[in-house]
Amino acid sequence: xxxxxxxxxxxxxxxxxxxxxxxxxxxxxxxxxxxxxxxxxxxxxxxxxxxxxxxxxxxxxxxxxxxxxxxxxxxxxxxxxxxxxxxxxxxxxxxxxxxxxxxxxxxxxxxxxxxxxxxxxxxxxxxxxxxxxxxxxxxxxxxxxxxx
Length: 148
Hints:
single chain, alpha+beta, three-stranded antiparallel β-sheet, 6 strands, about 25% strand
């Protein structure tokens, strides 16, 4: 939850989550979605051991493994291949975040829609259209026009 200390990052075994930021006006901003075999958390708060600025919320019934930071460090020290795996996943997540920022800066709604459809088509089957519209920064009506 926003404002609480972040003690874990989560590996999604099954289900679907969204990472959200609620601003001072109470508006929800969807930062990301996470589904099976993905890791998710407020990573800044997790690694810095600070309070969360974002919250994880389930969209579907979800099962996760929770990894405390001290266990993350212990596993990374004990198993160099696992540390490389964590680094690779972190790098891929960072790249995805940068790509999303670039798409908001350089693409119109149609371009953002097409990019998301290309990179994560499964989301269109699992995420309610109102949430997809919010994630893409468009109205529900605009999303309907884009998808027809």
